[in-house]
Amino acid sequence: MAMADDVTRVLKPPSLENLICVSLLLFRSWQKLNASIILKLILVFCWYLMHLLVCLVHIMASLKKWLLSYIISFGLLSKYQNLQLDMLNCLAVVVDSEEATDTRKIKHLLCWLLTMDIKYITLYDMQGLLKKTLGNDLMSLTKTSTRSCSVDDVKTMASVFQMEKMTVEILSLSDGKEGIAKAASFLCSKYMKDDSVSCNKSEPAFTESDVANALNAIGYCGPEPQLLLIYGPARCHLGFPPWRLTYTEIVHMGSLRFMNYGAILREIYQFSKKHQNYGT
């Protein structure tokens, strides 16, 4: 009899109150689940919307620069025709090694900079391809461009090419490494010599001026460029000698394939209008 009561109690259907409680719990769980899903969808939508807005702003800014560059190239803006180059004594151009093989573009770039009356140009690529290709072809460049660029009397000395109206210096990553190694060796030998004479065993304290004097003594202290233009995918100087970038403004110009005369003119003009505070 007791077993029959237990079976009856187990098989007894749940009461209405229990059903309502279970239903409420399920409904609340469903509401929380839906709320979390909706919140995630809203966050994802806001994230993609923000990225879309940033991309649109970037595209609009690029289009504005592109249109302005072509307008400048056609000479429609007179303020870009007369450049004030008092602050620009040296211009550096860093080219990605994959694009440095296009010597035709490099020659066009040199010709454009010559027409802008740039006196000193430093070309740089990491692997030294410009030294191998452009260094040998610089004489032919002056011969083919004499009429349009008025370049005569080329004298080739190592990686510095002195012309009548412009000096071109070609550097690579090995120049920076070699310069640092020779400067360190020079300072070490000088310190050891002074230490042996004075019998002083104190720790060496090298200052920035000591390193600059050492680089100057071994012939690796060239002019510091005031403006550095970078052509390639990377937005960095790609190992350009850092001791020559004390107060240099670095500008990324994009790919060398899309090099534009107006873009170069625009950046030089904007640089000429800036005021620099060097401090003490």
UniProtKB/TrEMBL annotation:
InterPro entries: Nus1/NgBR, UPP_synth-like_sf. Its cofactor is Mg(2+). Keywords: Endoplasmic reticulum, Magnesium, Membrane, Transferase, Transmembrane, Transmembrane helix. The keyword Endoplasmic reticulum applies. It is an enzyme of class 2 (transferase). It catalyses: n isopentenyl diphosphate + (2E,6E)-farnesyl diphosphate = a di-trans,poly-cis-polyprenyl diphosphate + n diphosphate. The chain crosses the membrane at residues 37-61. GO terms for cellular component: dehydrodolichyl diphosphate synthase complex; endoplasmic reticulum membrane. It comes from the Eukaryota. SUPFAM superfamilies: Undecaprenyl diphosphate synthase (SSF64005). Its EC number is 2.5.1.87. One of its GO terms (molecular function) is ditrans,polycis-polyprenyl diphosphate synthase [(2E,6E)-farnesyl diphosphate specific] activity. It is found in: Endoplasmic reticulum membrane. Pathway: Protein modification; protein glycosylation. Belongs to the UPP synthase family. This is ditrans,polycis-polyprenyl diphosphate synthase [(2E,6E)-farnesyldiphosphate specific]. It comes from Musa acuminata subsp. malaccensis.
